[in-house]
Amino acid sequence: MNRDMMKQDTMQPGGLPYQEAQEKLLQLGDIHIRDPFVFADKGAGFYYMYGTMGVTSWGGAAIGFDGYRSRDLHHWEGPFPVFRKPEGFWADHHFWAPEVHYYEGGYYMFASFKAEGKCRGTQILKADAPLGPFVPMGEGPVTPANWECLDGTLYTDEHGDPWMIFCHEWTQVGNGEMCAMRLAADLSEPASDPLVLFRAADAHWPVEEEGPGNFVTDGPFLYHAPDDKLLMIWSSHGKDGYAIGIARSESGSITGPWVQEREQLFEKNGGHGMLFRTFEGQLLVSLHLPNTHPYERPAFFKTAYQAGSLMLMS
């Protein structure tokens, strides 16, 4: 980002000069979230970041999601209350992994929610701006009501049709499943039955979770490469802790078949990743690190697409 452009910004806190305002902003180490998702709005010149609130990530009454805003990925304004649980909302805990996508003129948040006696699921919320307020669409999740699901993400295929990719949880099926489901054009409801793309144990690197035959699937994110290959990064537990692996669609289509890459993108105690480009064009992976509560913080790593796969740059 051009530093002179940043100095001209009139939206710094309190109208302070740039350098003084910068010193009052947050840095990544100050932001306690899991599952960091970055929406890069080049037209506005801002990066927006969302994530699971660290304080209530594993327990306690959840209140919603916050957002943060930055010009340079180092200094962040916020938190901004982008979603707060409305009266009568069906879920009350485990508000997880919000993602924000721009689609057909609106901003759509995909996020996971849970309530006692109800299956965890991904619900879609909508807003007119990246910082909300986001309002739930429909009465509940778009994932199947009797499935324990999480981490829905949006993918638009080569025909322009929207899909949600999500995880059918290991807590219900043992060998966690990665699934895809076509959505209605306005994202309001499912437009097909779920399709299983692959299972966690199809990859060589995940280790069992809390008993034999249990393998986690978490955090899918799709990457359409410059050579038209379709890749997915996703998380599970590996021998060195929470990690990110890579799957590749042999057909280049969301329906696969999907094969698992031998090399992982990230191996050591950090994960739930997504990919975005800086305004200068550098590809970055965003993840939380470490995967140890309450020390999780957002982290970005330079990433490259080479020889048909993704890798961190040294």
Plain-language structure description:
This protein is 5% helix and 47% strand. With 314 residues, it is mainly beta. A 4-stranded antiparallel sheet has the order 1-2-3-4, with no helix packed on it. Strands 5-6-7-8 form a 4-stranded antiparallel sheet, with no helix packed on it. Strands 9-10-11-12 form a 4-stranded antiparallel sheet. The longest helix has 7 residues, at 18-24.
Q: Characteristics of this structure?
A:
single chain, 314 residues, mainly beta, Tachylectin-2, Chain A, four-stranded antiparallel beta sheet, 5% helix, 47% strand, globular
Order of helices and strands: HHEEEEEEEEEEHEEEEEEEEEE
Helix content: under 10%
Distance between the termini: 22 Å
Measured by DSSP, the beta-strand proportion falls in: over 45%
Task: Give a nutshell description of this structure.
One of its GO terms (molecular function) is hydrolase activity. By secondary structure, this protein is mainly beta. It contains three helices and 20 strands.
Write the layout of secondary structure elements.
Layout (H helix, E strand, L loop, with lengths): L2 H5 L10 H7 L8 E9 L4 E8 L10 E7 L5 E9 L8 E11 L2 E10 L2 E10 L7 E2 L12 E8 L5 E7 L1 H4 L3 E6 L12 E5 L18 E7 L5 E9 L2 E9 L8 E3 L10 E7 L5 E7 L7 E10 L2 E4 L2
Antiparallel strand pairs: 1-2, 2-3, 3-4, 5-6, 6-7, 7-8, 9-10, 10-11, 11-12, 13-14, 14-15, 15-16, 17-18, 18-19, 19-20
